[in-house]
Design goal:
This protein is of the alpha+beta class. The chain has two domains: 94 residues, duf1285 like fold (Roll); 76 residues, no CATH class. The strands form two sheets. Strands 3-2-1-6-5-4-14 form a seven-stranded mixed β-sheet. It has a seven-stranded mixed β-sheet with strand order 9-8-7-12-11-10-13.
């Protein structure tokens, strides 16, 4: 987390949380969901405005974490902005390199795959020390090759069971969108 964010948290520890204003789709794109987008429907059915500003995306990604309930958020100074997730908190990209494949999150964080899962819709999820993520659709062909080669052996599961297994909440707004203030000292878990 950025030092300026940590300093703001110390200075203003009880700023109300923000729900419903930020979304992350299954391709790793961030969306700002203003009041009009929120009134039009839930994420991801109504996504809102895609965040194109590179520095803003980088700031969000550096300050992205999860709380004890498995709800993911962006710590924006003293305010915790909870993220509505389309499929998972991480979107994995596959990068071929010298006969191997590197796995990186939508934030650029490298990951070592610990397990692979196929849900009822045929979507491939990978779990790592960082948590659960979905393989980006542009990388499915490369991922299929890794499955065929035996590098990953995905287990079949239902998406809801996968979320429960890895303690992921897709909609913090639906869970507790009351805007309650952060507890003193916060309860964030920072991804490794």
């Amino acid at each position: 987390m950025d030092e300026i964010v940590e300093a703001a948290l110390r200075k203003w520890p009880n700023v109300p949380h923000c729900y419903g204003w930020l979304g992350l789709d299954a391709r790793g794109a961030w969306y700002l969901r203003d009041e009009r987008a929120q009134a039009a429907g839930a994420f991801p059915a109504v996504k809102g405005s895609r965040i194109e500003h590179a520095k803003l995306r980088e700031f969000i990604e550096r300050n992205y974490a999860a709380d004890a309930a498995g709800c993911w958020f962006f710590q924006n100074g003293p305010q915790r902005v909870y993220v509505e997730l389309e499929a998972a908190p991480w979107v994995w990209r596959l990068h071929p390199r010298d006969g191997a494949v590197d796995v990186r999150s939508h934030t650029g964080t490298p990951a070592d795959v610990e397990s692979a899962w196929l849900d009822e819709s045929g979507r491939l999820f990978l779990a790592s020390r960082q948590g659960l993520g979905i393989v980006h659709t542009a990388d499915v062909e490369l991922a299929a090759g890794l499955v065929d080669a035996g590098r990953w052996q995905p287990a079949s599961t239902r998406h809801a069971a996968l979320l429960e297994r890895f303690a992921v909440c897709l909609s913090p707004l639906a869970l507790h969108g009351d805007g309650a203030p952060a507890p003193a000292g916060g309860n964030a878990t920072q991804p490794p």
